[in-house]
Amino acid sequence: LLRMSINNLRRRKLRTGLTVLGVVIGTASIVVMVSLGIGLKEITVEQYESSGSLTKIQVYRNYGMGGSENEEDGFITDKTIESFKAIPHVKAVSPVLSTYVQMRQGAYEGSSRIEGLSREALEEIELGEGRLPDPSSGTMELVVGPMVAQNFWEAKTGRGFWETGEQPAVDLYGKPFFTMFQNMGNGDENSQKKYLFPACALVDGGENGFSEYGYQIYTDIDLLKTQLKK
Question: I need a surface site. Which of 29, 104, 128, 149 has the fewest CB within 10 A?
Answer without folding.
Answer: 29
